Amino acid sequence: MVKYKNWLFAIFVISFGAVKCFDINIGLLYESNNAQIEKVFHKAIELANTALMEEAHPLVGRTAEISFGNSYDSSRKLCKMLRGGVAAIFGPGTTASSTHAMSICDAKEVPYIDTRWDAETKLPTINIHPHPANIILAIRDLVNSYEWKGFTILYESGPYLPALDELLQMYGKNSHTITVRRYDLHLQGNYRNILRKIKRGHDRKIVIIGSIETLPDLLQQIQQVGLMNERFQYIIANLDLHTIDLEPYQYSESNITGIRLFDPNDFRVKLLSEHLSQAEEEGEETPPEEPEVGVEVEEALGEGAEEEKPNEENNHGGKTDITIQMALIYDGVHLLAETLRHVGSLELFEPINLNCHDSSTWETGFTLVNFMKSTTFQGITGEIKFDHQGLRTDFVMDIIELTAAGIVKTGQWSSDVGLHIERQPQKFVLENGGRKFANKTFRVITAITPPYGMLKETSQKLTGNDQYEGFGIELIHELSLMLGFNYTFLIQEDKVYGSYNKETKQWSGMIKEIIEGRADLAITDLTMTSDREMGVDFTMPFMNLGISILYRKPIKEPPELFSFMSPFSKEVWLYLGGAYLSVSLSLFILGRLSPAEWDNPYPCIEEPTVLENQFSFSNALWFTIGALLQQGSEIAPKAPSTRTVASIWWFFTLIMVSSYTANLAAFLTVESLSSPINSAEDLANGAGGVKYGAKKDGSTYNFFKDAKYETYQRMHEYMENHPELLPSSNDEGVAKAENENYAFLMESTSIEYTIERKCNLTQVGGLLDEKGYGIAMIKNSPYRNELSQAILNLQEQGKLSKMKTKWWKEKRGGGACSQKAQSDSAAELGMANLGGVYFVLIVGSVLASVYGVIEWIYIIFRRSRAYSVPFKEELMDELKFVLKCSGNTKEVKHRKSSSTGSRNSSMTLESMELDNSEKTNLHKGKETKNDA
Ligand code: GLU
């Protein structure tokens, strides 16, 4: 509605007003320390007059220098200016001087054009500076895109306090850990104490919100205190960052990101910049009151755009001496000129003389303000456009980054779209033709953990890097040869690799050393974990592994007593027994059936009355067992049927015996292994009462701590309740596993190393997870990619596996257990292996002896009864004869009359008496006991 009225009013003036020539004065109040502003102001007026203003109504600059921060001086000079009549006032750059001036302009209804960072802009003032809330939005977007979870805000009080408040509110209470530190003028330019506090803390990400006046000192002191290196990242929320000399920090490797509202390569910026340097060279004093309207300027304005194409060379490292205030003054002047150009007739806006001490006002002043707020103009700082609140809108800021090549644009932020990163922060622009490692000495922290880092075994006194050897030491050496850096080893005495304590919010061990900047790289069996990745960066893994169990080798159980039975299964033995009996039976039957098996027992008798068969059942058994045991017997089958059975049996026994013999050696030497645990489940279930643990606060322990699997959770609970079972180093754990009933949860690579040397230990079960070891370094380290690449190269060349073989299997007692295993394989058989055979022999002999003695006593007993002689006497006689141990003949003591006659005169009485049936079975040529 207001706008509508204003334009109607303007049309009325155009239609009816008289046209006359007059100057349109505009005033500038500037602080004594900012004299360059005045030159820019005049140059801007000059260019605006040329491009936009009618000749009859040129803009004329009225300027007044005020002492810095002196509000009285600024009010006084402003009033003087108002007395001369001005159409608009450009206010000073500091809050102290501008507040009063702004109120006076407000009272006199004179447009006040502000160019300050001001969170509390009061309408109807026009502030061309983007509102700090928008700048803070851009900072927040940057922090989010860099994924900072915690950071420090270093702010300057005064006008920057509301911005800080805004930022803190955006993050709420719980999301990020934000530390706020103030650096202020009251510190008289000495911010080192605050910076040292930051150094002692953990934050390496810092947002700086402050004025450009304090920034150079602050950055210098940041460097002096040691916070300007590759471990630190800064976001600087000041639109003048590009105006200060950043060269000393270009090579610091710290990541400095900033914002800017205009491109230093813009031709208008260059024009202003040239103007300033010319003015300086010529010792130019106050510029002419009247604008010099000339063709040359117009040319510069028109052609410059084509000639001055932005490129890296013109960039001067992205630095310019044109400050945001200068650029905004330029844009302000042009905005005013553009507005006046569009109001048609300017009579209405002819400035009037105003007195600060009366109630006079410039009635059309606020109309001009409204016109200006509804005008859009393409200025140095982008499109000048205001929203309904009168704040700048639709502006775009460049995201810039300091690199070794100077300031480089990496993206942009616009109030409507937000952040757009065109390329990831360029952490490093290579110097020296890409040799970023040249002259770089890394402090490499390691721990004395075999075989990654070990003290050399020598009688000589060694110092420095020479003291150490091992896989990690050699790897760093190889990398240094490839990349050309130097290194010094540091030792983590307590062997704590590092973990994050969520309660104390502290890191420990080697990771802490890296984060706090006491070491550049960490190498050992340092596992890459997601937790550690939050604090440090890792290279590509140089070794892959998983968690497993180190435990005593299973105890060898001696072979069983009857291990000679093992070559055949029980069934085979049973069937063998069955076959033996069946074949014996078939021989017995076939023998009886076959006529060829019936012989004349007395060959001298041609017509025998009886025939004799050699295959009695006992003889059949004897024949079969003789064949089975490869001994033979003197029984020879004669009939085709018995011969067939015998042949088949011999063939059968041949195969059986060969098979048995072939298998026997293996079974005699088999020693079964028994272990109470075979897996993590067994450990969790307490099998065999085996105690277990992992290295204290190591990645293995943390694996169980964070595990979701129920078994591992139980194991963690156990370990948590038994802190005495958590050794502080692998060596301690290994010693425990050797000497106690203790299983050490260890990483497979370290297990491999251990069991090469400690032959009584072994790995139990498979891997519980998969992970890798990497070299740790500070987050966002510029060296990470090259180190990773070099590790990949070493891997591809096979050097890593060679190194592994060397340190695992060859050096420091490697291969001891594989040699032992070889010598074990030629072990002789002992009594444990063959005891069963002896047992059978003894038992067989004893049984035979017992049987022999019983039979002997029984015959004596029968004889004593048959001849009615005392048993005792008979027994003693026989005993005496046996104990005499000599003589192969024996006298027959009790003879009957030879009534048995002709049948067999040489047959003994005893044998006739005892068992006639047995005698018939005796082979005729086998009788040894002949009558004397
Ligand atoms: N490699 C482990 C770590 O980086 C140490 C040994 C372990 O926990 O098994 O913490």
UniProtKB/TrEMBL annotation:
Residues the record marks as site: Crucial to convey clamshell closure to channel opening: I677
Residue segments, region Disordered: 892-932
Membrane spanning residue stretches: 572-593, 648-670, 837-861
Cystine bridges: C759-C817
Family as reported in the entry's similarity comment: Belongs to the glutamate-gated ion channel (TC 1.A.10.1) family.
UniProt keyword annotations, A-Z: Cell membrane, Disulfide bond, Glycoprotein, Ion channel, Ion transport, Ligand-gated ion channel, Membrane, Postsynaptic cell membrane, Receptor, Synapse, Transmembrane, Transmembrane helix, Transport
Record protein name field: Uncharacterized protein
An example molecular function term from Gene Ontology annotations: signaling receptor activity
Keyword Coiled coil appears in the UniProt entry: no
Binding residue positions for L-glutamate: T527, R532, S699, T700, E747
Positions of the Ionotropic glutamate receptor L-glutamate and glycine-binding domain: 451-516
Comp. bias (Basic and acidic residues): 916-932
Pfam families: ANF_receptor, Lig_chan, Lig_chan-Glu_bd
Main subcellular localisation: membrane
Interaction with the cone snail toxin Con-ikot-ikot (site feature) positions: K705
Kinase in keyword set: no
Annotated Ionotropic glutamate receptor C-terminal domain residues: 441-810
Membrane topology, from the record: Multi-pass membrane protein
GO cellular component: a single term: postsynaptic membrane
Compartment list: Postsynaptic cell membrane
